[in-house]
Amino acid sequence: MPRRHHNRRRQSGRPSLGTFTGWAQAESADDGDWLVRTVPGAQATKVYRCPGCDHEIRPGVPHVVAWPADETGSVADRRHWHSGCWQARRRRRPTRRR
């Protein structure tokens, strides 16, 4: 059975940061367990490089942020993906960064 991400702050009655920035959904796939959060275009304010296609994700473009669901996952492990690239990652592995 896949592990579930539990927000301890929310369980204690205090608001979590997720209340303000969105929430993460747990996903399990052949490439591991992930926490995935959708970023609406209005909240996308920086330029990121998608690891799926190696193209830029421009400000204002809705996309997803994914990171490993295990305890060792940190902010440095978060990757911003085009939504379509994230869905197609099983068919197309990440490309090398320039």
CA-to-CA gap between the ends? Answer: 38 Å
Weakly predicted, low-confidence segments: 7-22
Number of E-type strands: 6
- Main sheet specs: 4 strands, antiparallel
Number of helices: 3
Going by helix content, strand content and strand pairing, the class is alpha+beta
Strand order of the largest sheet: 1-2-5-6
Work out the radius of gyration.
14 Å
As a percent range, the share of strand residues is 25-35%
H and E order: HHEEEEEEH
> What is the average of the pLDDT values?
78
Shape: globular
**Approximate helicity band:** 10-25%
What's the arrangement of secondary structure elements?
Elements: H1 8-11, H2 18-21, E1 25-29, E2 32-39, E3 48-49, E4 56-57, E5 63-68, E6 79-81, H3 83-87
Antiparallel strand pairs: 1-2, 2-5, 3-4, 5-6
Structural write-up:
The radius of gyration is 14 Å and the shape is globular. The longest helix has 5 residues, at 83-87. The chain has helices spanning 8-11, 18-21, 83-87, and strands at 25-29, 32-39, 48-49, 56-57, 63-68, 79-81. It has a domain at 22-87. A hairpin with a 6-residue loop joins strand 3 and strand 4. A four-stranded antiparallel sheet has the order 1-2-5-6. Strands 3-4 form a two-stranded antiparallel ribbon. The model is unreliable at 7-22 (pLDDT under 50). It is of the alpha+beta class and 98 residues long. 13% of the residues are buried. It comes from Prauserella oleivorans.
